[in-house]
Amino acid sequence: MEDGLTLLVLAGGESERMGRSKAFLKVDGREMIRYVIDRLTPLTSDLIISCKAGRERLEGIYPGARIAVDKSERDGPLVGLMSSLPLVENEYVGVVPCDSPKVRKELIVSLLNRARNNSAAIPRWPNGYIEPLVAVYRAEELEKAVNSVWERGEMKLSKVIERLEDVVFVPTDELKEVDKGLESFVNVNTPEDFEKHLL
Question: In Gene Ontology terms, what is one molecular function of this protein (predicted)?
Fold first, then answer.
């Protein structure tokens, strides 16, 4: 167990490209969200799942989790963060999407260690692209930044990150030490992705 860490899984809603909720896609009888959570729950007993629908089903799968239902009509990860962050009780929150079924707990631990005493630790690829949805944040700072952006009617996560005071951008090459193939960043967005990465 990692001290001071809450795990927040963004389950969202219907996926246009997938044609249905990605969280509940089944492989070998297990929902995809199980692949994510089962890999990471050894890190913390404090689990929050953000969703637009399927609360009862999620409660049946993970009765110990707190379920935050998105109430806004807006779409995007900021909706899930707005719903969920008020429930976070620990200093740090590890944010992961439900469609990254190969995420490694060692990578989250590495990010947590880098986030301590900072606003966040966010992976960054050599081309400058960042992975803000597989990252660790100081929860209070993230919540304030999300609220600030939300009040302005903006929905871009990049605007949230701009408002964080001290972000550590972690080169993905360094994270190969704990995830050689960087599979933690594989997203299952389409039926083709599903067949490639899970079947």
Answer: metal ion binding
